[in-house]
Amino acid sequence: MEVVLGVPFGYDASNEVKKLLEDFRNMVNFCIDYAYRRRVTSYARLRKGVYDEWKRRWNYSTHFCHSACKIALAILKGHRRKHKDDKPEARKLFMQLDPQLYRFYGDKIRISVKPREFLYIDLKYGEYQRKFIDAWREGKLKTGEITMNETKIVISFKKEVDLSNPKDWIAIDINESNVTAVSSNPHILKIETDLRTIHTTYFNIIRNVQRLRKFKPKTAKRLLKKYSGRRRRKVADECHKIARNIVEFAEEHRMGIIMEDLRGIRKRIGYGRRLNRRLHSWNFRKLQFYIEYKARLNGLPVIYVNPKGTSSLCPVCGGKLAPNGHRLVSCECGYENDRDVIACLNMLRMRGAPLPLKALHEPLTVEVRGRDENL
Ligand SMILES: [Zn+2]
After folding, report:
1. Residue 341 C-alpha to ligand 1 middle, in angstroms?
2. Coiled-coil intervals in this record (predicted)?
């Protein structure tokens, strides 16, 4: 299976590049106009219909015509989907190029504008991008099409990965204050998170700022922007750290990842408005998204299971569990464990992954991984 990831690089657009972007936008609008007037929806027909006139007007490498046609059709399709009848227009400067139109050199790219006429662009990058460049140099990644605007170039990197059934799986349970992961090999990972603290802190700050709105609307607006941004960055940082800890662990053991399908979680929980709002802003899905993204990057399969009953049924006999102390739950069959661990065991069972049987009746290895500060 092929995994594709878009990696953004910064760059300074020279006048030549700006001219190219503007020309490309004109090409797209030219194609939109043609397709709109003749009700063309097929790529082959559009490409054939516009080509002669396009060549007369622009005289760029032919692939620019292919690309402009593709984007024109995508814009028209999006427009129709919104049930709009008028002619759409490409307004932003934006360009998508096939691999035939550019060459990647790691720290720069070369765009073929016309036969034997090239544009060289230096790429700006940091640690994150460097990893991709290195892997590309080692031949582990290939480059696909690129997308660019006036400030950045997104290069797509492709990787062949073997996502066939791994021997072991790790199930991940995300809740208010910690993330628990149990693997079939068996290990337990418990990561205490700051997500609850971040949300409570900023929930209060933002509520106070909102009270200020009546008296000092301008100040309130500025502060609101400042604190919302800060909260968003803190949550994102925290989610990245947690996701990295988990995926590095899964990667070490080459394990597939199982998570709960949380799409209906707010409906199911029904704790009332106050908690609902907090659950909403916590963004479980964001953390899952980061985990899935990093896992795919490492070629680990990710699957979702229905969370119904994962925390209320016994993973050994399927009986109903009863609370037994702070975080413990127990079953009539005598089985007892931490309720987050039980949720994970049930997820492993639903996947048909080998249950860590040994672990069912004796404590598992508990590894608590600290959150490191550098991202
Ligand atoms: Zn039981």
Report:
1. 14
2. none
Residue 373 lies in a domain: no
Exposure of 43 in the CB half-sphere (CA atoms within 13 A): 9
Q: Residue 302 Cα, ligand 1 centroid: separation in angstroms?
A: 28
Number of structural domains the chain divides into:
2
Same domain membership, residue 155 and residue 240:
no
Dihedral (Cα; 287, 365, 351, 280), 10-degree rounding = -20
Rounded distance from Cα 342 to ligand 1 centre (Å): 11
Distance 346 CA to ligand 1 centre (A): 12
Q: How far is the CA of 330 from the centre of ligand 1 (A)?
A: 8
Note whether 139 and 192 are same-domain residues.
no
The Å distance, Cα 198 to ligand 1 centre, comes to 37
For residue 274, being part of any structural domain is answered with yes
70-104 tens-digit pLDDT: 999 999 999 988 888 889 999 999 999 988 899 99
Cα of 170 from ligand 1 centre, angstroms: 22
Residue 362 has pLDDT above 80, yes or no: no
Model pLDDT, residue 317:
84
CA of 165 to the centre of ligand 1 (A): 29
Q: Which pTM does this prediction carry?
A: 0.58
192-243 tens-digit pLDDT = 888 888 888 888 998 889 888 888 889 999 999 999 999 889 988 989 999 9
Dist. CA 281–CA 82, nearest whole Å: 29
**Centroid of ligand 1 to alpha carbon of 308 (angstroms):** 17
Alpha helices in 39-112, H assignment, sequence order: 43-58, 62-81
Distance 57 CA to ligand 1 centre (A): 75
Per-residue pLDDT at 37 exceeds 50: yes
The residue from 122, 140, 160 where one domain ends is 160
Average confidence (pLDDT) over 179-194? 86
Could you say which of 160, 195, 228 is where a domain stops? Answer: 160
Residues 175 and 322 grouped into a single domain: yes
Sign (positive or negative) of CA dihedral 16, 20, 25, 26: positive
